[in-house]
Specification:
The protein contains one helix and 41 strands. By secondary structure, the protein is mainly β. Among the domains are: 68 residues, Sandwich (Immunoglobulin-like); 78 residues. The protein has a four-stranded antiparallel sheet with strand order 5-4-7-8, with no helix packed on it. A hairpin with a 4-residue loop joins strand 21 and strand 22. It is globular.
Amino acid sequence: MNLTIRRLIALGFIIIFVLVAPALILYTAGYRYNLKKQEIQKTGALVIKSQPANALISIDEKLISDKTPARINNVLPGEHLISLTKINYYPWSKKLIVKEQETSFVEDIVLLKKSASELLEEQLIKWTNFSSNNRFAVFIINDKAQDYLYLLNLDSQKIRLIYNNGKKFDAPAAQWSKDGAFVLFEDGAREVILSTSLPKQELEAPAEPAKTTNFQWADDIGNRLFFSSANDVFQFDVSTNTRQKIYSLAKTEKLLDYLIRGNRIYTISELKGKFLLCRDAISNAEDIVPRTIELSGGQFAFDGAIDDQPIVRDLTNNDFYIFDANLFKILFKKSGVNNVEYLKNKRLLLTQTEQEIGVIKTDDDSFEEENVTRYSRGLERVKWHYLANYVFALHEGKIDFIELDDRGGHFILSLPLENISDFGIDEKSKYLFFIQNGLLSQMLIK
C-alpha cells in the first residue's frame, strides 16, 4: 500500500470522526433528532410507577423494554401517549407532556384488577349503610312480617345477624362510632346501640329524659354517645351505661341542633324568630370564649365537621357551609352539595352534587375547590380510594373509577357493572361491595 492510499484512508477516518463525534456527543448529552419538527432537541425524562408494579409500558403505542417502576430517559419533548398494561388488570392510558431537561413524574397510577363479581347474599336487600371508616356495613333483609339487620365485615367478608325486634323497621338510619366499634341503629322512634365485634352486645339508647333526640358519637372515643333533650345536652357512656348532663342552653332560646368537638360545643338555636350559631365551652373549659353569629336563610342543621371546623346546612335553600373553628368566617359555601367524604390523613375533602365531583385541600387557607369531573345528571355517591389519587363514583347505576391527576385530562375507567344502587369499599380498597339488582355482591379489585 503506497503513501497516497494510506493518506486517503487516514483522511477518511478523520472525516468520519469529524462527522460522528459531534453526533455522539449530542446523543450522550441527551439530544435527539425530532423527525416531526426536523430539528435537534434536548430531551426530557419520565418516571412511572404503578400499583401493582411490573406493568408493561408503551409510549405512543410502541412497547418499550422497561416495566414499572421505571425511569425513561431521552424522551423527545412534546405530548406523548403513555399506556400501561398488565395481564388480568384494566389498562391505563393518558397523554402527557414531556418538557426539555425536565422529568415528568407519574407515580400514583392504580391498575384495577379484572375479576368476576361474587354474590354475598341471595336475598333481596331493603336498605344498606356503610361505615365512614370503610370497615363495616349493615343491611336489612325482610322475611315475611319482620325485618332482620345484618352486619357485614368488609375485611373478612363475613356476615352475621345483629338485630331483630320481630317487626318491620320504620325509617331505618345508622350512625357509626368513629372507630367502628358500635353502630347506633334508629328504627323509627327507637334507638339501639349494637356492637360490631363479638361477643354480641345490644344496648337500648337512652330514652330518658323525655324526647331524647340528636344522637351523635364523640369524635375521639368510640364508646361515648351524645344526645339532647329540650335545651340540655347529655353524654352517655356505652361501657358503663351511665349518662350525665354536660351542657344547657338558656331557656330563652330553643335548641335545634348541636355539634361537639373536643371541649367545644356548637349550637344552632332559635331566638325570637332568628337563627343563631354559637360556640361555647363544655363544663369547665375556661379557655373557650363564647361567640354567637346570626344565620340568615332558612332552616339549619349541622352536618359534621372537618377537623374542628363545623359544617352547617341550610335545609331550606340546600346551601352547604364550612365555618372556621372560631366562627369568624365562612371558609367554603356551595349550593346543592349532597355528600362529602373527608380523608383526614391527606386533609382532602371530597364534595358531591347531583352533577359534580370536587376536591378541597383543607390545609390550604383558600379552601378552593378543584373540579374533578361533571356529569349531566344522576351522580349518586362518591368515595375515596385509600391512596387519595382516585375516587369511585356511582352514576346512573354504574361505577366509575376516576383519577384526580388532571394532566392530560382525568383518566376515567367505567367498570362493567350495571343497575347498582349503593356501594362501598374496604379500608385498603381491595374489595368493591355493591348492591346490584337488589342483591349484595363483592368484586376483587386489587
